[in-house]
Amino acid sequence: MKFGVVRFPGSCDEVDALMACRRFADAEILWHGDRDLAGVDAVVIPGGFSYGDYLRVGAIARFSPVMEAVKAHVLAGGPVLGICNGFQVLCEAGLLPGALLPNAGLRFLCRQVDVEVVNSDTPFTRACAAGDTLSIPVKHTTGRYYAPEETLREMDAHGQIILRYATGCNPNGSLADVAGVVNRDGNVMGLMPHPEHAVDPLTGSADGSCIFQSLMDHVEEGPARLAEARA
Amino acid sequence: MSGPAAVASHRALGLTDSEYDLIVDKMGREPNRVELAVFSLMWSEHCAYKHSKKLLRRLPTEGRHLLMGPGENAGAVSVGNGLAIAFKVESHNHPSAVEPFQGAATGVGGILRDVFAVGARPIAILDSLRFGELTSARSRYLLDGAVSGIGHYGNSIGVPTVGGEVYFEAPYEQNCLVNAMCLGIAPEERLIRSAAAGVGNLLVLMGARTGRDGIGGASVLASAELNSDDASKRPSVQIGDPFEEKKLLECCLELLERGTLRSLQDLGAAGLSSSSAEMASKGEVGLDIDVSKVPLREDDMEPFEIMVSESQERMLCVIEPQKLAQLQGVCERWEVRATAIGEVTGSRRLRVLAGGEAVGDMPVEALVDDCPLYDLAPARPEGQVYPAPQRTLDSHEPADILPALLASHNLSSRRPLFEQYDCLVGSRTVRRPGHADAAVLDLRPDGAQGAIAASIDGNGRRVACDPYTGTVEAVLECAANLACVGAQPLGLTNCLNFGNPERPHVAWQLERSVAGMADALTELGVPVVGGNVSLYNQSGDGPIYPTPVVGMVGAVPDPERAAGAGFSTEGHTVALVCSPAGTVSLSGSQLAKLHGEELPDRLPEIDVTGTRHVIEAVRDAVRDGELASAHDVAEGGLAVALAECCIEGGIGATISLPSYELEALFGEGAGRFLVSGPAEALESLAELATPIGAVGGEVLQIDRRWMWTLDELREAFGALALAFP
C-alpha cells in the first residue's frame, strides 16, 4: 500500500502528512507539476498553504497539473483525503460539496478540539466506531464549512457528514458543526482538523491515527470485506 | 571640505560631520551619491554597532557546544548526533511601531532568512513583545497588528511559533518592541558561512524583485528616535511575502544539499549594500555588482536605490561559474528568480556598476571596519527616571490581590495570542505554549534521539529598577524555564533593546545590563552565539524601559520526562524549591505596579551561585523523571504561580505556608520553583525543597483563610481575551 502526498508551491504540512502516512504504509511526495500519481493507492492533499493562498484559499491549486491526475484517480474510485487546505482545494475543484469560509472569529485559530465520528462506514473512518470522540487539533483562518441548506440535508441523508465538532468545540462557526465530509461516492474526504498532527501521544494525541489506519485497511483489504463485515 | 549640499545630504542620512570627514579621508575624495548612501547605512548604528561593539566584547562567546559564534547570520550549537541548532533573535521595533502588521511579519521573515542563510531548516519561532498599557487604543492596535503579522508570516511559511512572552508597560506606548527568535536544524557539516571566496566566482541574487520598499530602513527607522511624523515613514517599512520566502527557503536548502553554493547571505537591513560588503569583508575579497542586472519591481530606480532597498525575500550567494546551470535548474523547479549580478574580485573594493559605467567604488574595509566606535558616557541617574505606574488596585487583602494579579495584562493567560499561531507544523512540538515553562521540540523527525528546549525572557520593569540585577534575573529565569523541562542550556542569543545611548543614563543602563549578562552567563557557563542590538528606542515621552531579551536553547535527553507546568494528580505533594539564601521582595514587583508604587532604584542582590545550584537540582530531578510538574515562580510571586499550576492542570491544591505576609505570597525573586510529585520523589531535592501542601480538589486554598474555585481563577486569568474581540 502506498500513499502519495501532494506538494504545491508553498505547501507546508506535506512533510507532516508524509511522516504520518509512513507510520502505516509506504508514502511519497507527488510534485504539483506532474500529471501522474506514480502508482499510489491513496492521495493526501495536505494542509498548510498552496500558492500563498493570496486569492481565495485553494483557488489556484485546483488548476495545477497534478489535480488532473487526482480527478482521474477519483473517477476510477481511488481514495483521496484532503486535510485543511487540502479540503479547501477539493471544494474548489468541485470534488467535494460546499465551501469553506473565513472563521466566525475572523482570526487564525490553533486549538486541540474534540470531533465525533458520525459515520464509520467510509474508507476514511472504518477503523473507528460511530460515536467515537477524537482529540485532534485544528489550525486555520478559513474553516467555516458552508453548504446550502438543501445540499446539507442531502449530505446528511446520504451519510456524507462523517465528522462533527463535539458540543462546545466548534472553533469556526461551521454549519451543523461539520468538521469532515465525503463525496457522494464516498471516496473523497475533506476535513479541517489535522489528523497528521495527532498520530503520537508525545506530541499531543494519537487519535488521528484511525483515519490513516482506515485508509490502509480500505486499500489492503478492499471494500468487499467491509461490506461483508457489515452484513 | 564638503559643500553645503553635501552637508545637508550626509546629515539627512544620519551621518555626523566628523563621520563624513572620515569617509572623505578613507575614500581620498568626496563620495558620490551612491557611495554616500552605502556608507550612511553601513555606518549606521544598526549595521555598525558603533555604540555597543566595545561593550559586547565583555560577553562570553566560548563554549564546548559552540559551532558558530557571533558574526555569522546566526550562531549555532551542537546537540549531538551530528546535528546543529542554529538560532538568533532580532528586533523589528521601529518598523512595527510605524506599521505593526508588516513590521512584525517582516521581522519574522528576516530572522527566518538569517537561520536558513547558515544552512539550517527553520523549525521554531519564539517572540518577545512589549506594548504600552492596553487601556490605550494605540497599544491595542499595535498588539493586534503585531500578533496578526507574526502569525501571518510564520503560519504561512510553515514554521511553528512555539513560545514567547509579552508585557505591557507605559514606556513602550510609542515605541513598542517586536523581537523574533528563530531556531533551525542542520547536519553539522551542512552549516555554511557567508564569506565570499574564489576570485572569478559569480555573485547570484535569488528571490524577489527589488523595489522601493524599505529604502533607508536601517538608518531612518532603526537608528533614530521616533517622532510624531512617523506615519510619513511608512514607505520605509517593507512588505512581506511568506509564499515567496517559502519557495526561497526550500530552494536554498536544496542548493546546499547538492553542494552548489560556496557561500550564502541574506539581504536584511541595508539590502545589497550590507550583504555584499559583509560577504566581501569576511572573505577578504572584493565584489563587482552590476545594478543594471538586478531584477526590479519598478524600472526607473536609481543605482543608489537598488543598493539600499530593503525589499524582502532575497538572498545572495557565491557560486563557481560552472555551477550556474545547476543553480538555475533548481531555482526554476522552485519558481525562484536567480540572476548573476556580479563577481568576486581580488580588489578588496566594492564596485557598483550600472551597465558599463562605474557608479561607486569603495574600499570594503572602510565600509565594514572603519566606522568609528564610540565610548559611552554612562552616568547613573539621581533616583528613578521613570514615572510611577497608574494605580489600579487599592486593596491589600490577598483575597482581592490574587484575582487582580491574574487578571492584570502582564500575568494573564497568553492563550489568546498563542492560539493565533500554528505551534504544531513540523510534528516536533512536545510541549505547546503555556503547557510548560519552555517549548520542547522532538528531534526524532531529524533522525536523532532526544529533544531540545527553548525559552525567551526579559523583564524591562525589573531592569529599569536595577539594570545589573534585572538582567541577571532575566538570564537566570531563562535557565530556570529550561530546567523545568529538564534542559541544560547550550547557548544564548540576545537582543538589547535600549533608548538613545548618547544619553548618559541610557548608556549607564546599557553598560550595567551587559555587565550583569556577562556575569550571569559566566556563572552558568553559557556562551552568547549571536544577537542584535536595538538602540534609540525612545520617543518624545522618553526612553523605553531598558529591555535586554535573552533566548536560550538547551538539550533534553528524554522528552517524555519534560515536566509540564500544571499540577496533575490528586494527593501529590506540592513543594517550593529555592536556595536557602534566596530573597524575595515586593520592591519592583507586579503587585507594586498594581498599587501604583514608584519603581525602586535598586533590587536586592542575587546569590547567583546558589541560584545556579537550585536550577541544576530541578533540572536533574526532572531528568530523573521524578517530578509530575515543575514551574518557575516568577512575576506575581508564589500565589500567582500556585494559581497557574492549578489552572493549567485543571486541579486544585491545599497550601500552608510558614508566613502569610504579602511578601511571602506575592514577592518576587530569582531561582524559585513550584514542583509536585509523590512525596518520596521530592526527597531527591533534599534541603532545597519545602513541602507546602497537596494537589487535589476543585479549589486553591491557602491557609484555610483564602479559597478560590478553579472557575474563579480561570475567569480572572482569561482577561487578555478582551484585547482580541
How would you portray this structure in words?
- The complex is a heterodimer of chains A (231) and B (725).
- By secondary structure, chain A is an alpha/beta fold.
- Chain A has one domain (2-230): Rossmann fold (3-Layer(aba) Sandwich).
- Chain A contains five helices and eleven strands, in the order E-H-E-E-H-E-H-E-E-E-E-H-E-E-E-H.
- In chain A, the strands form two sheets. A nine-stranded mixed β-sheet of chain A has the order 2-1-3-4-11-10-9-6-7, sandwiched between helices. Chain A has a two-stranded antiparallel ribbon with strand order 5-8.
- Chain A starts with a strand and ends with a helix.
- The model of chain A has no long low-confidence stretch (mean pLDDT 95).
- Chain B is α+β, with helices and mostly antiparallel strands and 725 residues long.
- Chain B has a domain at 564-718: PurM-like C-terminal domain (Phosphoribosyl-aminoimidazole Synthetase, Chain A, domain 2), CATH 3.90.650.
- In chain B, 34% of the residues lie in helices and 23% in strands.
- Chain B has a seven-stranded mixed β-sheet. In chain B, strands 23-25-22-26-24-27-28 form a seven-stranded mixed β-sheet, with helices on both faces.
- In chain B, a hairpin with a 2-residue loop joins strand 12 (349-354) and strand 13 (357-363).
- In chain B, helix 18 (467-484) packs parallel to helix 21 (608-623).
- Chain B is globular.
- Chain B starts with a helix and ends in an 8-residue tail after the last helix.
- The mean pLDDT of chain B is 94.
- Chains A and B meet through helix 1 and strand 6 of A and helix 8 and helix 10 of B.
